[in-house]
Amino acid sequence: MVDIGFQLKNHGVTLTVSVWQNDQDIAPTYELEEVWVHVTGVPHAYRHYLVFWAVGTVIGATLEVDMLTYRMKGVIRIKVGMMDKRQLPHTTDLVFGTQGYHVTFAQEDELFLPARMMIPWILIISGMVMVVLRIRIGMILQKIEEDKST
């Protein structure tokens, strides 16, 4: 790649800009397996996003927290990067406040259906209802006009 040079006339300075090259970048030695886990045993007072994120770090690197599924189905669902997902299910003791609890991490079943946003369907259904209402109102207004003319 070509370097770009700038000269500052009054100062006798040349500024050269070039593409960064890092010849000493370190190649990773391993890659984590991504897995969705279901978590049970978290006390209700601690069931919120930041705690779920922290709980995920107990077994690996937390990548995602599915709050929609928690809110709609009550299932704590966390995507984590793990060294070996064959270690699941895994139960461990975690302390919340000053009290300890048994918390279990289980790999999500392939048949589990997470919650999905339903807003587009609601909008489409609402649109259909509006069309139907307009047609009915149009028919009623047409009938009134016909009655007036007779």
Description:
The longest helix is centred in the last third of the chain and has 31 residues, at 119-149. A hairpin with a 2-residue loop joins β6 (90-96) and β7. The strands form two sheets. This protein has a five-stranded antiparallel β-sheet with strand order 4-5-3-7-6. A two-stranded antiparallel ribbon has the order 1-2. It has 150 residues and is of the alpha+beta class. The chain has helices at residues 49-56, 67-73, 119-149; strands at residues 4-8, 13-17, 33-40, 61-65, 76-82, 90-96, 99-107. 31% of the residues lie in helices and 31% in strands. The chain has two domains: 31-116, 2-Layer Sandwich (Alpha-Beta Plaits); 118-150. The chain is built from three helices and seven strands, in the order βββαβαβββα. The protein is flat. The relative contact order is 0.14.
CATH topology of the largest domain: Alpha-Beta Plaits
| CATH hierarchy class name of the largest domain | Alpha Beta
Number of strands: 7
Number of domains: 2
Which structural class should the secondary elements be placed in?
alpha+beta
Major β-sheet annotation: 5 strands, antiparallel
Helical coverage, percent range? 25-40%
What's the SSE pattern? EEEHEHEEEH
Q: Provide the residue-averaged pLDDT.
A: 83
Instruction: Please indicate the percent range of residues in DSSP E strands (runs of 2 or more).
Output: 25-35%
Q: Indicate the CATH architecture of the largest domain.
A: 2-Layer Sandwich
Distance, first to last CA: 85 Å
Low-confidence stretches: none
Spatial strand arrangement across the major sheet: 4-5-3-7-6
Rg calc: 30 Å
